[in-house]
Amino acid sequence: MYTQAMDTMPRDADGPKPLRSAEEQVLQERFDARIDNGDFIEAKDWMPEHYRKTLVRQISQHAHSEIVGMLPEGNWITRAPTLKRKAILLAKVQDEGGHGLYLYSAAETLGTSRDQLLDALHTGKAKYSSIFNYPTLTWADIGTIGWLVDGAAIMNQVPICRCSYGPYARAMIRICREESFHQRQGYDSLLVMMQKGTPEQKAMVQDAVNRWWWPCLMMFGPPDDQSPNSAQSMRWGIKRISNDELRQKFVDATVEQARVLGVTLPDPQIRWNEERQHYDFGTIDWSEFWRVVGGNGPCNRERLATRVKAWDDGAWVREAALAHAEKQRTQAKAA
Amino acid sequence: MTTTKAEWPLWEVFVRSKSGLDHKHCGSLHAADPKMALQMARDVYTRRQEGTSVWVVRSDQIVASDPGDKDMYFDPAEDKVYRHPTFYKLPDAVDHM
Amino acid sequence: MQGSISLGNDPKFQYLLRIGDTTLVLGQRIAEWCGHAPVLEEDIALANMALDLIGQARAVLTHAGAVDGRGHDEDQLAFLRAERDYRNVTLAELPRGDFAFTVVRNTIVATFLKLLWEKLADSSDAELAAIAGKAVKEARYHQQHAADWVARLGDGTDESRRRTESALATAWLYTPELFAADAVDEAARASGLGPRWSELKDAWLAEMTEILAEGGLAVPGEQSFVSTGKQGVHTEHMGHMLSEMQHLQRAFPGGAW
To answer: What confidence tier does A5 reach under pLDDT thresholds 50, 70, 90?
Structure first.
């Protein structure tokens, strides 16, 4: 998921430390009770250091994913085939920027700053969702991202609206409210091409689905038995459903949607399992996943370079704004 | 290389979506000056809906106290909203922390 | 490959195209910033502006197509004309440049459009008046946003000042075209469709002078070059922009989107 990087870190070297004082013991117990009770933790409340660090990582990686995610889709804004589609895509990418902003804002309540978080992204220390390391090669990729990638994201995001950390939960509620049109519009764009389009358009859609299907399944992260940090995150209510469960839910929903679209999912092993009451599906090539997560996907270097360039190119602008603000303040004082 | 000193300050945003309602805190953003903060707050948090009222306040100007279990206070003397590194003014000599 | 559509020459149609094309092309240029702005908040602000302009373009081009009476909709007009049939002012089609160029150009065009939309709110054409009523609020906001940035960059650091002065020197070359008079303007004036664009010059210059002064910038001197985008004769930049914008419609004739 957008926070799949949490699962791809080794078991945390600086995991929970043994508590030192009796006072901390009490605080920890009260904290655990609040978590178990389903209460919200707010910015100024006592929290274990490990909880705080995990949240900063998770929220910021989610934010980075939104920002980097603007790039593969932004790639087609100037080439959108109609003015309506151009406006829809621009609005969607703008929303993603906004979502990144809400999430950076939530992360900052935990004692870090936007610049520190961006520095972690730009230097490669912080990760973002692997899915955005794939290229958008045709217009149909845009609709496919809306259908599959946003579909997967929504599945993951809704449960987090009830996570234990207040600012994160509130950011997620705002995000989910705005997200509703993203998946619908992507699917609608594909449906129009499949139902009313030319043979070339239909072929373009099928080609996009062929390329995005497996990477989308990988979005949900490694299998549960290879995700060492999940249990703690679930205990704290910042992750509510397991990777495999979400992945299965996604496949079940999407197979039906693919049928309506009239596209073939590139997995001959997809078959309804009457006993399990779920769709069986083929084996994911996890070597590709680890390769992409490790920095060797098709677009990793480009994506990061683009973000770094935008930041570097903008340095003089940010400095000028601060200089101007300082001048205004000085003038106001003198007046 | 960006240092926290060169960062645009953080502002909290409060929006009244309809007359008759209170302003509600909806998040934060970075802006260099008050005018920018207000414009950005509109662009980010209201997409410029007419008739909404927007307040922006520098985060370090907010004085806060959290009610609730006072035994849970991490530091009773702490009256700022967040544990934000830039809220703490250090002498230049040690400002690299 | 999808060929170009052919259009009429009615001055009312041409007047509308000048407006619709200017907002379309400028919207396209601003949209290029998405994902590349100096700060995330600005990405969102610029996208808002681009969305407003594209919205204005859609409304005006739809109306223009109806006026031309050949059954062309907003997309056929936006994506299937030959370069020579686009009537945007040249200033709009110039590449987005650096952030200084973008905010300087936005200030110039937003100030102009604001004044134009204000007059068009009284147009004898009810549809155009309605479009103008909404668009003028957007133009006011765009002008405010861009002008504030001109002040920050003009009176910020040495580098920002240098870049802003350079941007201003370039952009100003293309401003005489905004106010150049011709038969299309005369027809619009006569029918009550809208003002001669030359009538907007004094107010525009007054506002620009004030905005530039906020940034400690001098109004560049007059010179004799007049660009010709309104007549359909564009710069070398236009062809590249149109290739990009039109590509899918050209490559998938009869496509459904």
So the answer is: low
Cα distances (angstroms) measured from residue C87 to each of A181, A247, C81, C91, C135: 34, 51, 11, 11, 19
| Contact at CB, B48 and C45, closer than 8 angstroms | no
Tell me the two tokens of residue A11.
Answer: 């078991």
- Return the SS3 of B56: strand
C99 alpha-carbon distance from chain centroid: 17
- The residues in C 36-75 lying below 8 A from A, measured between CB atoms, are 36-41, 43-44, 47-48, 50-51, 54-55, 57-58, 61, 74-75
Contacts of B39 in chain C (CB under 8 A): 45, 144-145, 148
pLDDT tens for each residue of C51-90 = 999 999 999 999 999 999 999 999 999 999 999 999 999 9
Chains in contact with C, where contact means 3 or more Cβ–Cβ distances below 8 Å, are A, B
The pLDDT mean for chain A works out to 92
Q: Please say if the pLDDT value at position A200 is more than 80.
A: yes
In a domain, B96, yes or no: no
- Minimal CA–CA distance to C28: which of C66, C63, C1, C57? C57
- Is B16 contained in some domain? yes
CB contact under 8 A, B39 and C148: yes
Tokens 């070398």, residue?
C236
Distance between CA A198 and CA A204 in Å, rounded?
10
Using one digit for the tens of pLDDT, what is the confidence trace for A230-255?
Answer: 888 888 888 878 899 999 999 999 99
Please choose, from the candidates B42, C40, B41, the residue with its C-alpha nearest in 3D space to the C-alpha of residue A68.
C40
ipTM over 0.85: yes
Task: Decide if A100 touches C, using CB distance below 8 A.
Answer: yes
Number of structural domains in chain B: 1
- Within 8 A of C144 by CB-CB distance, chain B residues are 39
Which of A94, A114, A190 to mutate against chain C (most C CBs within 10 Å)?
A94
The answer to whether residue B5 sits within a structural domain is: no
pLDDT at B2: 42
Q: Among C36, C78, C247, select the one facing A83 at the smallest CB separation.
A: C78
Residue C124: per-residue pLDDT: 97
Q: Let me know if residue B52 belongs to a domain.
A: yes
B60: CATH: 3.10.20.520
CATH of C11-251, one of 1.10.8.60, 1.20.1260.10, 3.40.50.261, 3.30.360.10: 1.20.1260.10
Which of C33, C157, C241 is the best substitution to test chain A (most A C-beta atoms within 10 A)?
C157
Tokens standing for residue A81 = 């085939």
